[in-house]
Write a structure and sequence with these properties.
Blueprint (H helix, E strand, L loop, with lengths): L2 H15 L4 H12 L4 H34 L5 H7 L8 H4 L3 H8 L4 E9 L2 E10 L4 E9 L2 E2 L5 H6 L11 E8 L7 E6 L5 E7 L15 E10 L6 E8 L5 E3 L3 E5 L2 E10 L4 E9 L8 E6 L4 E2 L1 E8 L4 E8 L8 E10 L8 E4 L5 E4 L5
Antiparallel strand pairs: 1-2, 2-3, 3-4, 3-7, 5-8, 6-7, 8-9, 10-12, 11-12, 12-13, 13-17, 14-15, 14-18, 16-17, 18-19, 18-20
Helix pairs in contact: 1-3, 2-3
């Protein structure tokens, strides 16, 4: 019997034996029946009371089961370990700061998984996965003997990279493989919804600086080899990935030039989870600072960038393949705002210097 079936069985057993205070039951019943018409109350009163009572009992039992599960020895240690990884209790995508991953969760595009590996009492679990053809995302969670353990704490990592100051089990380094090879892939790791979780992002990449970004296959086997601090053995997670979005590819007629800089938006790909823009940049300016491209929705909200891949072309041209969080589906346009950084004493002190003459608002084709 699966975990879900066992939980349902426990819930119905509890419902059969659960005594509800009569005054509480009567109060809820009265409140519900006030919403039923006089005609329906006369013809369906008995049936309504039965349905209401059954629903209330089972609902109360469900709450009771959850409380018992997480607060007592109601289940075996083996089942407790499995339940500790149930996605409904650890929904990283839903609570993370990435709007695309939140959308994936809301639209049913995120797959709940339970791939894990254990060493020295630490269990690393891939609890969720998502792939829209442009990026893959995997939610990682760490626990020690059934209790949450610190995996990726951005604040602690920012304080020092010295291993002596990192806790056992915190993230150290990782390798990623698609169908057994590390070619044509790159990865990044960032915070999840707490220090016990992290999100790994997988995108296509090439070691050839003149090559365009490789397209990831629609289905592949992803292997993550994760090393954690003070644990010699790597954690191996093997996760099947499958694209499950219908992407739209557009070819906007958008370009802008000013003085010694010009850019042209050649291709745009959209999914509910990500927006990809392929742009060609030509620059002959003596300013050696890199030009970046901020994207702003029609309401003025910045669309956060996820990944930037660049490859050199002939005659001084450079192709930028930029991956952003999704543009809202109801937006009719967006604005591209090129800028350079004005560097301060630290990255926190850097400021954006926008190049106003190169800004352009681009209409979105196909939106009514």
């Amino acid at each position: 019997m699966s975990i879900e079936e066992r939980l349902k069985d426990h819930m119905h057993q509890a419902a059969d034996h659960l005594n509800i205070p009569q005054d509480l039951y009567d109060s809820i019943l009265q409140s519900t029946e006030e919403r039923i018409s006089d005609r329906d109350r006369l013809t369906r009163k008995s049936r309504s009371r039965s349905i209401i009572r059954n629903a209330f009992v089972i609902g109360t039992a469900a709450v009771f089961i959850v409380v018992v599960i997480v607060s007592s020895a109601f289940i075996s240690p083996v089942m407790a370990e499995t339940l500790s990884r149930i996605p409904m209790m650890h929904n990283v995508f839903k609570l993370a700061g990435d709007l695309g991953l939140k959308a994936a969760e809301q639209k049913g595009l995120a797959t709940e998984t339970d791939y894990y590996d254990t060493h020295e009492g630490y269990t690393l679990t891939a609890s969720q996965a998502m792939f829209d053809g442009m990026r893959g995302a995997i939610a990682l969670q760490l626990d020690e003997a059934g209790h949450p353990a610190s995996l990726f704490d951005p604040f602690a990592r920012g304080q020092s990279e010295a291993s002596s100051l990192k806790s056992k089990g915190s993230f150290q380094v990782m390798r990623a493989f698609i169908n057994g090879t590390e070619e044509s892939i790159t990865w990044d790791i960032g915070p999840g919804n707490d220090a016990e979780s992290a999100i790994v992002t997988i995108t296509g990449a090439s070691s050839d600086q003149a090559a365009r970004r490789p397209v990831l296959p629609e289905t592949f086997n992803l292997t993550l080899e994760v090393r954690l601090e003070m644990i010699p053995e790597p954690f191996i997670l093997q996760i099947p990935m499958r694209k499950n979005t219908d992407n739209h590819i557009l070819y906007p007629e958008a370009e802008k030039s000013s003085r010694q800089v010009s850019w042209r938006l050649e291709e745009m790909e959209r999914s509910p989870v990500s927006t990809r823009m392929e742009l060609v940049l030509k620059e002959t300016s003596s300013d050696e600072r890199t030009i970046y491209f901020e994207v702003v929705g029609q309401d003025g909200t910045e669309i956060k960038i996820i990944d930037l891949y660049a490859n050199d072309m002939k005659q001084g041209y450079r192709r930028l393949d930029m991956l952003y969080e999704p543009l809202p589906s109801d937006h009719q346009s967006f604005t591209i705002k090129p800028f350079r950084y004005v560097y301060g004493d630290s990255p926190d002190a850097w400021e954006k210097e926008y190049i106003k003459d190169l800004e352009l608002t681009v209409p979105i084709e196909g939106n009514d």
